[in-house]
């Protein structure tokens, strides 16, 4: 059920994106002849008065089709309501409407979560939690015996209390003491144990032990019935996610070799959403908002086969005073589409191989 919920969230976000393009065209009386969710062979379709609606075999996105270059279209080539015959601004509105729809929908999801489920707050508990430990030979934490889900209660005789500063105190102590043995008090389920860890000197001249750290505690929510407060808090959450997403993409672009491994495909996203749904279905609102904003940022990038790539063609047309030759545009877009589909297939295979259940099969 949790997997189906995660898939449903992704499906809704794709529909929202394509509806943005579709509605922007229809509201301007621009002809639209296809509305498809997915790519490849048609699974189901319905022919409306003007538009064919279809579900296709590969749910890696969707598209809105226009009759401009459809050889079977009976609409005259000089029809003013063909997309290519419209002014640049009209076409830019249609091309950017999917991104705008995803951003608006993300904000709507965050406001809905605040209004129905409540405002998020964190109830701190003593210590700092270790969700993951690097298992490589170079991991000081693994050699010391620290395990995933341990809670570090104290370090170097400093108690890590139930507050926000606990994690920064622990990180600072580790970083400031490379090659010096630190005593740690660990809570492991119902047992308290004492370990000694020696942080290693990293490339940045700071100590490290090879663990992920998060604050210990749980998220609690307080529902609000004040509409204006919900709108305000939703806007704050929206702004935070947008800023973090843009920073993440900038890091990916500026330091691709170091961050490329963090790219996630549809399988990894569904797996993440399924885990979130298992823990707390209400968090799917924020998960949906996060993915919707990521879709918006990805699509606005000036890459072939994405909305941003087509907008880049419009910018070039505006500068030149005429569009690039149609053959050049088609070749660029087709090449971009092949590369994106190839990347999508690669990520699906890699992420499927990394699923817990699949890994366990090959490790037997």
Automatic annotation (TrEMBL):
One of its GO terms (molecular function) is metal ion binding. It is found in: Membrane. It is a multi-pass membrane protein. Belongs to the peptidase M50B family. Its EC number is 3.4.24.-. GO terms for cellular component: membrane. Coiled coil: none annotated. One of its GO terms (biological process) is proteolysis. Its main location: membrane. Pfam families: PDZ_6, Peptidase_M50. Residues 112-190 form the PDZ domain. PANTHER family: MEMBRANE METALLOPROTEASE ARASP2, CHLOROPLASTIC-RELATED, REGULATOR OF SIGMA-E PROTEASE RSEP. SUPFAM superfamilies: PDZ domain-like (SSF50156). Its cofactor is Zn(2+). The chain crosses the membrane at residues 92-110, 284-305, 332-349. The keyword Membrane applies. InterPro entries: PDZ (IPR001478), PDZ_6 (IPR041489), PDZ_sf (IPR036034), Pept_M50_Zn (IPR004387), Peptidase_M50 (IPR008915). Keywords: Hydrolase, Membrane, Metal-binding, Metalloprotease, Protease, Transmembrane, Transmembrane helix, Zinc. It comes from Trichodesmium erythraeum (strain IMS101). This is Zinc metalloprotease.
């Amino acid at each position: 059920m949790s997997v189906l919920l995660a898939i449903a969230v992704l499906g809704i976000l794709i529909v929202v994106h394509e509806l943005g393009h579709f509605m922007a065209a229809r509201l301007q009386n621009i002809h639209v002849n296809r509305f498809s969710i997915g790519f490849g062979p048609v699974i189901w379709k319905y022919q409306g008065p003007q538009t064919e609606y279809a579900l296709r075999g590969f749910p890696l996105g969707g598209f809105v089709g226009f009759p401009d270059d459809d050889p079977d279209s009976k609409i005259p080539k000089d029809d003013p309501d063909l997309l290519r015959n419209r002014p640049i601004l009209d076409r830019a509105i249609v091309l950017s409407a999917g991104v705008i729809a995803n951003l608006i929908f993300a904000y709507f999801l965050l406001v809905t979560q605040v209004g129905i489920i409540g405002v998020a707050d964190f109830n701190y508990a003593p210590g700092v939690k270790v969700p993951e430990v690097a298992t490589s030979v170079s991991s000081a934490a693994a050699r010391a015996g620290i395990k995933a889900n341990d809670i570090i209660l104290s370090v170097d005789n400093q108690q890590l209390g139930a507050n926000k500063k606990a994690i920064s105190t622990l990180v600072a102590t580790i970083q400031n003491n490379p090659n010096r043995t630190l005593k740690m008090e660990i809570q492991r389920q119902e047992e308290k144990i004492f370990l000694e860890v020696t942080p290693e000197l990293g490339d940045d001249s700071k100590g490290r032990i090879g663990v992920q750290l998060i604050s210990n505690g749980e998220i609690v929510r307080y529902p609000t019935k004040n509409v204006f407060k919900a709108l305000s808090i939703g806007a704050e959450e929206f702004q935070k996610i947008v800023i973090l997403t843009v920073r993440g993409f900038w890091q990916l672009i500026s330091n691709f070799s170091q961050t490329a491994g963090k790219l996630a495909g549809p399988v990894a996203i569904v797996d993440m959403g399924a885990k979130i749904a298992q823990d707390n279905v209400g968090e799917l609102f924020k998960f949906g908002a996060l993915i919707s904003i990521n879709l918006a940022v990805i699509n606005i990038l000036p890459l072939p086969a994405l909305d941003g790539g087509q907008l880049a063609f419009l910018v070039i047309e505006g500068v030149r005073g005429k569009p690039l030759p149609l053959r050049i545009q088609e070749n660029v877009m087709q090449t971009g589409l092949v590369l994106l589909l190839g990347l999508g297939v690669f990520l699906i295979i890699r992420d499927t191989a990394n699923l817990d259940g699949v890994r366990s099969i090959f490790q037997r």
